Amino acid sequence: NGVFEKWALDNGVWHQKLIYPVAFGEEGSEYIGALAAEEIGPNEILVKTPGRVIISAYNAYTDPILSQIIYDHPRVFA
Questions:
Q1: Are strands 18-24 and 31-36 parallel, antiparallel or unpaired?
Q2: How far apart are CA 50 and CA 14, in angstroms?
Q3: Secondary structure percentages of the chain, helix, strand, coil, to 5
Q4: Which of 29 and 2 is assigned the larger pLDDT?
Q5: Minimal CA–CA distance to 8: which of 77, 40, 55, 71?
Q6: What per-residue confidence (pLDDT) applies to 1?
Q7: Contacts of 9 (CB under 8 A, 6+ apart)
Q8: Which residues pair with 24 in a beta bridge?
Q9: Do residues 33 and 18 lie in contact, with contact meaning Cβ atoms separated by under 8 Å?
Q10: CA-based torsion, 41, 34, 61, 78: positive or negative
Q11: Per-residue pLDDT tens for 25-63?
Q12: CA distance 30 to 23
């Protein structure tokens, strides 16, 4: 688990049937996404996120942990 994954879990974000993060694409042009760990049914909840941790641009840049992730990985967040 990465820093973001730990932060999400510590703050109540739930995603039982997803693997995150997963890199897709060819080397040099990968993008980050999620992968289904098992079959997901119609109308099934994929992710639960408490309202207090919804990430806006403002919240991301003012949170000490998230802003550090952004600054440490400029290619991902450009």
A1: antiparallel
A2: 9
A3: 40, 20, 40
A4: 29
A5: 55
A6: 54
A7: 1
A8: 31
A9: no
A10: negative
A11: 988 888 988 899 999 999 999 889 998 888 788 888 888
A12: 6
Percent of the chain with pLDDT over 70: 99
Nearest-5° Cα angle at 71, 77 to 4: 70
More confident residue, 2 or 30: 30
- Cα separation of 20 and 78, whole Å? 20
Report the C-alpha gap between 16 and 2 in whole angstroms.
17
Q: Is the peptide bond before 50 cis (omega within 30 degrees of 0)?
A: no
Which amino acid does the sequence have at 10?
D
> For residue 14, how many other CB atoms are within 10 A of its CB?
13
Instruction: Answer whether 0.85 is exceeded by the pTM.
Output: no
Q: How far apart are CA 73 and CA 71, in angstroms?
A: 6
CA distance 46 to 28: 29
Structure tokens at 60: 């991301």
